[in-house]
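User: structure tokens for this one?
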Amino acid sequence: MSNRCVLSLLLLCGLVVMPTPVSAENWASWRGPRGNGTSTEKGLAVSWDSKRNVAWRVALPGASGATPVVWDDRIFVSTADGDDLSLVCISIDGKELWRRRVGTGNRQVGFGDAEGNMASPSPVTDGRHVWVLMGTGDLACFDRYGKPAWKTNIQEKYGRFDIQFGMSSTPLLADGRLYIQVIHGPMRGAEEPAYVVALDQKTGKQVWKKDRKTGAQMECKHSYTSPVLYDDGKQRFLLTHGGDYLVAHRLDTGAEMWRMGGLNGVPGAPMAARRPAGNFLQRFDVAKFDVNKDKKVVRAEITSKLHQRVFDRMAKQFKFDPTKIYTIAALRKAIGQKEIPKPSAPAARSYHRTLRFVASPAVAPGLIIAPSAKRGPVIAINPNAKFTGDLTRKATNRLWKLEDGTPDVPSPLIHNGLVYLCSENGNLSCFDAKTGKQQYQQRTHRMRHRASPVVADGKIYLSARDGKVTVVQAGRTFKIVSQNDVGEALAASPAISNGTIYLRTFDALWAIRAK
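Assistant:
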């Protein structure tokens, strides 16, 4: 029998699995194939509800904020299962293939409607094996068919986790190793037990381990971010984020290459100086009214609407005629301004003792976006292998910095020369990646956003806590394409593969597919 006939017979019997179409893209980690939330998939659904454009829905045994990962015909989902913590494998046609217990001791974390638990870290896969870490420290490897390869417990090997809202960092898979950051520590005292460890992906045995001390205090010792790989084709290194710093490490040894602070104040730094005496109007330099620089001021020459309002308030409060012409000296005398106001130095940012990092850094060739937390700073970094040491006070490696406005939980998104920041309240801000110039800030859906945004086919998907997903057109002009609701709460970021958007709610895994 010819080879062609044998192949035909095997196909008829269903014994040969044909490869995934070349247009499909695997989603092997929580931030996708490039580790930054971007997908090259086309023709995805942009509108849906609980019935429309739903390929299938598979109920899951418990909640989790972990993102599913997809490789070819298999989806891997970590989940709470009563007291157990499990990994579930589901086919892309919506059938559960296997379920394996990874550990026990699940518990809720957080305040109020606690949305976190011990199944918060996302799995990672290379298609042949899948690795999953739980908040209990249980770390396991299975092959794609569910056969156990190895298992260990990070807490038993390296010490108990000391982190307020539970371990939720997802391991990074690269170069045959699992890279895990444990940035934690007691909120009282100076002890800093934070570390980064690399394990052999085949055995789980330690390759290297490095302490990670930054001088962070109180809750700032805690980080819920995940390690990130920077790779621009010329340089590759590991990024860990937390304890007030972004730190770059060598992949082969874990040695620190550089660190970047400036995301929090300096512990023990003096507070900003007290404002000079007098009210705001008396501290305002009236020379700013002199638009034509003739050392005289008249209301008609003031072009700034803000300055017009200030001038009018001065006239009302200090009872001078706003229609007359005044010399600068006479106007200063009229408002009781005894000396020329000096430009005030920028106020020092005081140290925020609860600035724990949750949002992970975003990367693209030639750019790293380092968020902080609680509407703190965002720093855009130009990665350069020549830089070493503490870069906090070196401006040459910074592209730009926002003094405030960081997302608290959702990680930044970089796409086509733009940086997108989704605030927890649903506001979406867009910035030029090179200059930091804001393109817009607009409201999407006024609800808590915990999931990180993803982009595919020119559209950004923003997932809110109540299950509503807002689709926004990518680009410098803001436009909402659609808002979609499956009616179930979620905290996990979407995964995109095989022309499908996978949404992991607290109740189920949904496959959203255009029909």
